[in-house]
Amino acid sequence: MVGLFANAFGLKTRSERPTSLESAAIGETYTINSIETTDSEMKHFLFTLGCFEGERVTLVSVLSDLYVISVKDARYSIDRELASAIGID
Amino acid sequence: MKIALAGNPNSGKTTLFNALTGSQEKVGNWAGVTIEKKFGTLKSKYNPTKEAIEIVDLPGAYSMSPFTSEESITRAFVVDEHPDVIINIVDATNLSRSLFFTTQLLDLGIPVVVALNKTDLLTRDQTVLDIKGLTNRMKCTFVKTIATKTQENGLDALIKEAMAKGGQKQATPFQVPDEALKAAQYDAKIAETQDRARYDFVKEVVRSVEKRQVENRRETMQDKVDRIVAHRWLGIPIFGAVMWLVFSVSQTHLGPFLADTFVGWIDAFYGVVEGAMGDSVSPLLSSLLLDGVIGGVGAVVGFLPLIMVLFFMLALLEDCGYMARVAVVMDRFLKRVGLSGKSIIPMVIGTGCAIPGIMATRTIKNERQRRTTAMLTPFMPCGAKLPVIALFSGAFFSDAAWVGTTMYFMGIALIIFGAMIVVRITGEKNKRTYFIMELPEYRFPSIKRATLSMLDRGKAFIIKAGTIILLCNALVQVMQTFNWQFQVVEEGMESTSILASIASPFAVLLIPLGFGAWQLAAAAITGFIAKENVVGTLAVVYGITNFIDTDALELVSGSSSVAEIMGLTSAAALAYLVFNLFTPPCFAAIGAMNAEMENKKWLFGGIAFQLGTGYVTAFIVYQVGTLLTTGSVGTGFIPGIIVVGVMIVAVIAMMRRGDRMAVPKPEAHLA
User: Boundaries of each Ferrous iron transporter FeoA-like domain copy (chain A) (predicted)?
Assistant: First the structure.
């Protein structure tokens, strides 16, 4: 019952080792190792926000279908597609 | 002397600009409120010299390489127009990102003074900043400011510093190591190397000057609020409840209550003017003045309190940080029809006025999404359409709250439906897009700012009523008084008037929609100049002086008589309302669509789509409504169904063509 409730609020944690933010665990901080997209403008935009290889990113929560991430002391909401483009280890 | 304000989105540039210049430019708590540069003159309070100092507010930008169109304005201005000083507004709670842009500004050689804004939040978070250290490391002065405060906000010191720096040279705080640049062989690589070096430098500076107690990455109270407010299933009902609250306060409770008092004054004024003129003035002139000007304009101005309350509520909503959450909640749904969560912001702003709503689409990166949003935003009933809604729900549906509410939901439904059609026509139904949006911190909305925004809109509304609407009403009054030979139209011969003969051909087209009277056609046409005109013109052509009852707390007085004069069934009345709401917006809003779409094909396609939508929805409402209430279809069903059928077939054909152009859906999900 508690598990169900936690699930509804996006509190589930995942055990397997994530390769991108899409499968990251909530509350965990990761190091970005790649930005996998052919959209060079988006890649550059992420860069200007400080979201590039070697930088730290935290998955704060998952709201609706969006991922709330913290990069360089700022919060962003990104969609699943963008989350899957941000490779982490 | 010219001072430019530049900085990251939502760092408080416009708030600072308003404080420095006394302007009332729109502010809000999300990234991308300001979409154009704004000019102002420094208040004498801050200016010790006689020289006029120009302040330029620029849209927020994360860097010198623009991502969306409004960001490029910032770059173009600071690079090409050489301001004497740049005030770089930096959100003090987010140095590690903001200083990246600062280092880029410092490279321009123009003196930079940093306004370290939102310093009140530092105290809250117990973050300690070494201002002296910052000034030394960055080779430019840092001044603490709190732009939202009126006293002790640091603005005096900021301006003093900026004026002292005018005309000086600016040193750059860091150099990219030569060997790193040599290693990078081509241009793109060089830029990347420089940017990385910048971020490394910033990281190092922040480490040495900032002592934090609260890490941003930790979950806060705000995140807990977000879990509820932007929850997968609760988010939509909460958004619905918030919007319902906004509309019910402005349209069924506080708004009408204030409107009632206000209309009493207009009535009294009518009486005074009528009395003063007596019988000495020619009946023609007195009717022009009383019915055309005071009656027509009064009918519109009577709704001023409703609109002001609406703008007050919207300003509170924009100020608290909720808008970005609405975008989060709606993204899931809008994505299905090819839009993104960002499209909801123009639409919410559009409930106040479509023009700023359409302009807000500028922050949407994807071209098709931006154009589609600009095309569909006018379907949200705006403040000018409020009087129309209020009039019809009062006159035909005894002020039933469902009428207004239904109109907003219908607007949303048409937007979703329209987006679905557009994404298929353009052949982009399988195109992949990304969504990213900064989530601002919640804050308590400022009553003062909401009040200012309300007064500002109220003023604009009165000016509009006193100019365009007054002129239109006077013109309508003259056109219906005279025939083409410039003789006064006799009683019983109203259909020979200039107005009637112009409007009649249009009225024929409206027969299948249930309202083929020239008076109603004329009102709908004047509605394209300003939507309030629909009410004003109806007041003039039907000789109704005031729609708002001053005795009973009712919006529309003698509702049965108003309904009787217009001679509409309730199905036809609802169809007429729907037609006026969902046809193309006023010309000013069409102008805004033109500016944002930057493409004539899209503009005319959009207008055609809006016209078609208005026609088809009104047709369905009237015919189905008539069928339900009387058991048989309304007048002109056969010609109407042919017209509607042709439109639907044309749209389907275009969607088919788009589907053939579309790229196939990507097979597997990229992991």
Answer: 19-89
The one-letter amino acid at A88 = I
The CATH number corresponding to A14-88 among 2.30.30.90, 3.30.559.70, 3.40.50.2000, 3.30.70.1450 equals: 2.30.30.90
Q: Please count the other Cβ atoms lying within 10 Å of the Cβ belonging to residue B368.
A: 19
User: Residues of A with CB below 8 A from B340's CB?
Assistant: 79
Q: Where are the domains of chain A?
A: 14-88
A→B interface, C-beta within 8 Å: 8-10, 19-20, 22, 27, 29, 36-37, 39, 41-42, 44-50, 52, 55-56, 58, 60-61, 63-66, 68, 70-79, 81-82, 84-85
CA distance B212 to chain A (A): 11
Structure confidence by residue, pLDDT tens digits, B189-247: 777 888 888 899 999 999 999 998 877 777 888 889 999 999 988 999 999 899 888 88
Whether B406 contacts A45, CB under 8 Å:
no
The answer to whether the CB of B352 falls within 8 A of the CB of B306 is no
Work out how many CB contacts closer than 8 A connect A with B: 133
Q: Tell me if B415 sits within 8 A of B347, measured CB to CB.
A: yes
Q: Would you state the pLDDT for residue B152?
A: 85
**Interface predicted TM-score (ipTM):** 0.85
* Strand duo B128-129 + A56-63: pairing: unpaired
Which residues are within 8 A (CB) of B118 and not within 5 positions of it... i.e. 6 or more apart?
B11, B12, B91, B92, B93, B146, B147
User: What does each C-alpha distance from B311 to A16, B209, B387, B670 come to in angstroms?
Assistant: 50, 42, 14, 44
A 10 A CB-CB count for A13 gives 10
Domain boundaries, chain B: 2-211, 235-659
Closest Cβ opposite residue A76 in set B63, B341, B437: B437
Q: What is the pTM of this model?
A: 0.87
Q: What is the pLDDT of residues B267-323, one digit of tens each?
A: 888 888 888 887 778 888 888 888 778 877 887 888 888 889 989 999 999 999 999
Q: Under DSSP, is residue A35 helix (H, G, I), strand (E, B) or coil?
A: strand
Q: How far apart are the C-alpha atoms of B428 and B436, rounded to whole Å?
A: 20
Q: Does B235 touch chain A (CB under 8 A)?
A: yes
Query: pLDDT band at B550, cuts 50/70/90?
Result: very low
* SS3 state of residue B128: strand
- The CATH architecture of the domain made up of B2-211 is 3-Layer(aba) Sandwich (3.40)
Q: Which residues of A touch B199 (CB under 8 A)?
A: 50, 52, 55
Contact assessment for residue B531 and residue B580, using Cβ atoms and an 8 Å cutoff = yes
Residues B70-79 as b/e (b if ≥16 CB within 10 A, e otherwise) read bbebbbebbe
